[in-house]
Amino acid sequence: MRRIRSACTAVSALTMFAAAACSPEAEAPPAPVTPSPETAGTPAPPVSYACESGQSVTVGYSDTATAQLTYKGQSYTLRTVQSASGARYAGSGLEWWSATRDGSESATLSRLGPNEDVGVAVLERCSRPSSGPVAPGPVPGPQPAPGGVLPVAAPCLGPQLRLSADGGDAGAGNRVSILGVQNVGAQACSLTGYPTVVLQDRQGRNLTAIRADQTLGSYFRQGQTPSPVELAPQGKAFFDIAWNVVPNEGNGETSCPSATRIRMTAPGDSSPVSLAQTFTPCGGRIRVSPFRPVAEPTPEPAPAAST
User: Fold this and answer.
1) Which residues, 6+ apart, have CB-to-CB distance to 251 below 8 Å?
2) Which of 125, 121, 126 is nearest to 110 (CA)?
3) How many whole angstroms separate alpha carbon 217 and alpha carbon 207?
4) What letter would DSSP give residue 250?
């Protein structure tokens, strides 16, 4: 009888365990799930720009404020800075300034000046189709340019511009030509920074041995940083080309090349305008000033003579 009671007790216990195992309250709790962080936006892949010199520049935009630039096997970190148009980055001694026009993105790589703020010498002029990956940089829009002036008109483009000779100066082996850039379009536009200047010979070939160095200020007033110049319809902006006419005999130069045409391209544009002008720049370079609103700045007053 005791054996039967023990068996019944065991069966009863097993029945209760099975019932408990099948009840919802006894189900094992799910393994804790760590909430996955919100997926961060994937940075755009680096993009490559082909340059006129045959070099390439690769730029990765890791966020809206940083550009990681690779040039000639070296990497440089640049940060976004203010620009009148397009996207402009500066740092590590370099300036990278890009803009998109008519299905093409053009850019300039320049060496920064002593103040590490404004590019003063163009190293490369590059471009790529704008149909490629879009950089997550700042949205182009009117922003204060170096100098703190806010342009109110869109950047000028080649088809609405005309180039003219508007004076010059000469002395002690130096020459300067003041060039006017007229807005012949129906809408106002603005120019900021430096023109891209290329010289050509009589056969229309580019004089690649002559480089165009950018200088702060103008031939008549040194050290001024670029600032926006707004051109109403038929209005003009001006810039200088300066050169030397004395052969650099120390470098074996006995004669100087003859240029017969100036081709100028507005910043961020790819449509040049031309002007026939014959001159002989020596030393393998010319000096180009930024745009300004007057043909010749008024000279600074001379200091009073001490008595």
Assistant:
1) 283
2) 121
3) 25
4) G
Residue 121 Cα distances to 32, 71, 75, 143, 275, angstroms: 60, 16, 19, 23, 23
CA distance 181 to 236: 5
Residue 216: pLDDT band by 50, 70, 90 thresholds? confident
- Residue 28's Cα: distance from chain center in Å? 61
Of 152, 167, 307, 147, which is closest to residue 238 (Cα–Cα)? 167
**In whole angstroms, how large is the CA radius of gyration of the chain?**
33
Backbone angles phi, psi at 130, to 5 degrees: -80, 0
Q: Which residue has the higher pLDDT, 47 or 148?
A: 47
Helix H or strand E segment including 190? strand 189-191
Q: Are 258 and 267 in contact (CB under 8 A)?
A: no
What separation, in Å, do the N-terminal and C-terminal C-alpha atoms of the chain show?
Answer: 139
Residue 56 structure tokens: 């390439």
